[in-house]
Amino acid sequence: MATFEQFWSRKTLLGLGLGQFLSLLITSTGFTSSLLAKKGINAPTSQSFLNYVFLAIVYGIIVLYRREALKAKWYYYILLGLVDVEANFLVVKAYQYTSLTSVMLLDCWSIPCVMLFTWIFLKTKYGFKKVTGVVVCIAGLVLVVFSDVHAGDRAGGSNPSIGDILVIAGATLYAVSNVSEEFLVKNADRVELMAMLGLFGGIISAIQISILERNELKSIHWSAGAVLPFVGFAVAMFMFYSLVPVLLKINGSTMLNLSLLTSDMWAVLIRIFAYHEKVDWMYYVAFGAVVVGLIIYSGGDGDENQDPHHVAEDASQRQHDEEATSGKS
């Protein structure tokens, strides 16, 4: 059993603090996306494009200054860029159809997806309690869907059912992106990852904008009320993307997605105090289920990233090193 000092270690506190800051950033992107949707602006790919440009410029300059060969294959970054762009497109598009709270809650679908993908591809181990916690979270997600179906005349969107489907699809792609980033940040380089994601994400976004959103951009009246949410979204996304690899390296994909669960709290507060909207009672039940699932997961079986095979190898290596050191003395 872990002691109090071990639990409140520097690594734990850093992960919790960074996770909550990321949660606030993701809530702010949802807030700005919801503002644009209310203004009738429907350009989800264009919203994310500026973020990729920022990433390509800032981190690209560092990569060029280093003059080092890429540590991962370039086509991995193209695939990651494609997945990431479409994930952003689907989730931002969902704000045209459903409420801010629904998007934030249904984004939790990425958690079981991340666990499945890390178990398959990264060989991460999860105990019974952690799996139980995720199951309870999924139960909360089901309640959200039922709530949107029976309360579709709410001021939250024109077609909540379609919005829910878009969010779930986008959350699945986010899970693929998160797990891929975790693998690359641990086996390649964080700066290289951000530069290449920005480069290829920007190229793919530009192509998609020219096909799907060219007329939409022409029809937008570019007042301060439209420009500020666009820029705010891009700045928040740039900070989010820059800090995500840090948390992935420290605590992994599952910790990232669990930390983002608290964004639901901020989303509900925004909806009540900023939009003056009433929250359907099933949201409270759904959120309660998500919180309970998070508590069960947090008190689960040890470190989910602990691979027994690797632990045995590390112990054997330490024993070998100790024997070699004693033999020399």
UniProtKB/TrEMBL annotation:
<feature type="region of interest" description="Disordered">
    <location>
        <begin position="305"/>
        <end position="329"/>
    </location>
</feature>
<dbReference type="GO" id="GO:0016020">
    <property type="term" value="C:membrane"/>
</dbReference>
<protein>
    <submittedName>
        <fullName>Solute carrier family 35 member F1</fullName>
    </submittedName>
</protein>
<dbReference type="InterPro" id="IPR037185">
    <property type="entry name" value="EmrE-like"/>
</dbReference>
<feature type="transmembrane region" description="Helical">
    <location>
        <begin position="49"/>
        <end position="65"/>
    </location>
</feature>
<dbReference type="InterPro" id="IPR009262">
    <property type="entry name" value="SLC35_F1/F2/F6"/>
</dbReference>
<keyword id="KW-1133">Transmembrane helix</keyword>
<feature type="transmembrane region" description="Helical">
    <location>
        <begin position="74"/>
        <end position="95"/>
    </location>
</feature>
<feature type="transmembrane region" description="Helical">
    <location>
        <begin position="161"/>
        <end position="179"/>
    </location>
</feature>
<dbReference type="GO" id="GO:0022857">
    <property type="term" value="F:transmembrane transporter activity"/>
</dbReference>
<feature type="transmembrane region" description="Helical">
    <location>
        <begin position="281"/>
        <end position="300"/>
    </location>
</feature>
<dbReference type="Pfam" id="PF06027">
    <property type="entry name" value="SLC35F"/>
</dbReference>
<feature type="transmembrane region" description="Helical">
    <location>
        <begin position="191"/>
        <end position="212"/>
    </location>
</feature>
<keyword id="KW-0813">Transport</keyword>
<feature type="transmembrane region" description="Helical">
    <location>
        <begin position="224"/>
        <end position="248"/>
    </location>
</feature>
<dbReference type="InterPro" id="IPR052221">
    <property type="entry name" value="SLC35F_Transporter"/>
</dbReference>
<keyword id="KW-0812">Transmembrane</keyword>
<feature type="compositionally biased region" description="Basic and acidic residues">
    <location>
        <begin position="306"/>
        <end position="329"/>
    </location>
</feature>
<feature type="transmembrane region" description="Helical">
    <location>
        <begin position="131"/>
        <end position="149"/>
    </location>
</feature>
<feature type="transmembrane region" description="Helical">
    <location>
        <begin position="12"/>
        <end position="37"/>
    </location>
</feature>
<comment type="similarity">
    <text>Belongs to the SLC35F solute transporter family.</text>
</comment>
<feature type="transmembrane region" description="Helical">
    <location>
        <begin position="101"/>
        <end position="122"/>
    </location>
</feature>
<keyword id="KW-0472">Membrane</keyword>
